[in-house]
């Protein structure tokens, strides 16, 4: 992989300059109290497995003061720059590209009363160094509204109740079913309503529609609310176990069946995710779901399951944790021409679900993977992994991480299920509590299925990123 060293140095210099300007705004001073971690609160059963496999945010939000700011308002900002280099972009041999993904979030929170919070957040993202015809839809969004909601929060009978109305985030557990896809430049949000009842034991009842990104015009969702669900999070019912049952409804108009008959899609997904700790330093995570419904005049019969098991050697230096993983999402085998068997991946955070190259989606796929993560210090984490990727059935297509078709299956099906093998290594380090660095490299060794269908170029991706977050209040935030 060719890496433009001068470009990287320039990017790092520009990013640090932006950070310096942000912290030297007139009238703003550093707060002396430590900032709370920005990571969401977790129950004991939640802590541990998630971060190493999906890059949950680490580091703290730096607290700043601005005396003339009203006490009922808070400003916040996130700056992120990530240099990426690929050797075979779009599966093209010698299609080397080095580019910079920049992302700026800026938010304003207002608290007019004890029970009401309002929030507005803008997003501005760019893919520098890439011609527009190869810029993916998740890379660029020029100054738009990412979130804008009103949160009414009460505590009747000591049970917290919230109603969030407007443009907002939805993310649950490992985010393999519903997540914001934070790794992508244009992370996901929804328009609609979410009612949250409870705290450590909580249920979310939501009716929403995902926001479609338009790079040079206003982002908006489609007509009506199309994605609904009930997602429960039970953190204390069973000791050392976090159980999350869910039921999701997807309603899409104007689809075309396998018989070319137009109609509507009405799809129900029901399942559960469970994670927790076992004796002898073992931990686990599992998720399974089934999908039923109709796709115009066709019926839907699909499902998915992933299982992870880890062992942590707590007495060894760096506390190595070795894990095994199995992922399976059904494909359409076409045995019944009135039935669709392709699992609908919904709205997942797919980064590193099938390797750091992020080429494949959770549809018609099977994976076996080995993970090893290490913690040399509290601020440094390392992850090494190897995966074996296959189609679930040769009769269905290969799908991208966004769920679109990458290679359409021929009428007779593919000659092989072997997508390929991948090796990845990555690390994350937190500098001085507030600046978070990510670095990694992933390589896909194409299998017979890719090679036999004009997608056989081996792909290597490398990246280096820096992220910095801060918030501004009238007074020092409480520790």
TrEMBL record:
Keyword Signal attached: yes
Lineage: Bacteria, Pseudomonadati, Acidobacteriota, Terriglobia, Terriglobales
Protein name: Alginate export domain-containing protein
Keywords, comma-separated and alphabetical: Plasmid, Signal
One Pfam match: Alginate_exp
Family matches, as InterPro entries: Alginate_export_dom (IPR025388), Alginate_Permeability_Chnl (IPR053728)
Chain ranges of the Alginate export domain: 77-457
Signal peptide stretch: 1-31
